[in-house]
């Protein structure tokens, strides 16, 4: 009855995937024969919660099961939950733990940063927190709209796709937006971001048509417009623009946004030199354009060119560790490269 939503089944459990931005929903047979339905819906919103109940209703009816307790109104319950979380000092709502963005905001919701005034208003009147959720209302197109909104907020890099996986992500967002608009022409959609997405995909004609019909708009949705904090297993941390993607390869971390590249190697020394002496062991090979000397670390940045590529080669020592960072880009990227090197620190 639930079709492709079924991930796996056993005699006493069914696991369902009902939304790409939410964890699985599980139906478990308890020892007394009751059914327990569990799943986290707060990352998507009360509309998703209500949709789960609606999709399970015919299944439960077929099996002659009813809810043991009256189900509260999802919007009222989730708004009250959000207000309570904010009142308790929670600053991240619906964001995956692995995403660490560097943003000066009182609260980070899955739908974007919010200031202290918003937080205080929601604590005073929980209904004002509706904009923190991608799926608030019922109706056709809401599922597709919420999928698109959350992907745009948390995953889309807001540049040309670098590989097939990124292109699939971005074309999937476009497909969901088209489906939402087809299902309900009255739905509020992120038109400015949709135009920008189409431009990144090279769909210039569609982008121009949509822009002409929508009028002047400003893109605001998208955490990957902001810097991210990259924490490495070696104990070093540094900042990169959110459009970068990276991975470990041969004991070296690298990342790129298609135009610029970063390479980072981390070493542990056996000596007991202080950071300044440790840095001096490797003499400069190119002109030094900046130095750092503070109680926790000592660093040096060198600059040189290889053809049209401008390279900043930076070292940062924090005894007994040393990080070697190389940034490659255009000459105009030098301020970014130096800022990236300056952000290197031990966690």
The termini sit apart by 50 Å
The description of the largest β-sheet is: 7 strands, antiparallel
- Count the DSSP helices: 9
Shape assignment = globular
Strand order of the largest sheet: 10-11-12-16-15-14-13
Number of strands: 17
Protein model, in words:
The chain is an alpha+beta fold and 347 residues long. The protein folds into 3 domains: 3-72; 77-214, no CATH class; 227-346, Protein Transport Mog1p, Chain A, CATH 3.40.1000.10. It has 9 helices and 17 strands. The chain has helices at residues 46-62, 74-87, 116-124, 142-154, 164-183, 191-200, 204-214, 275-280, 334-342, and strands spanning 6-10, 13-16, 25-29, 35-38, 92-93, 107-109, 112-114, 227-231, 236-241, 245-249, 252-256, 261-268, 288-294, 297-306, 309-318, 321-329, 345-346. The protein has a 7-stranded antiparallel β-sheet. A 4-stranded antiparallel β-sheet has the order 1-2-3-4, with no helix packed on it. The protein has a 3-stranded mixed β-sheet with strand order 5-6-7. The longest helix has 20 residues, at 164-183. The chain is globular, with a radius of gyration of 25 Å. 33% of the residues are buried.
Layout of helices and strands, plus pairs?
Elements: E1 6-10, E2 13-16, E3 25-29, E4 35-38, H1 46-62, H2 74-87, E5 92-93, E6 107-109, E7 112-114, H3 116-124, H4 142-154, H5 164-183, H6 191-200, H7 204-214, E8 227-231, E9 236-241, E10 245-249, E11 252-256, E12 261-268, H8 275-280, E13 288-294, E14 297-306, E15 309-318, E16 321-329, H9 334-342, E17 345-346
Parallel strand pairs: 5-6
Antiparallel strand pairs: 1-2, 2-3, 3-4, 6-7, 8-9, 9-17, 10-11, 11-12, 12-16, 13-14, 14-15, 15-16
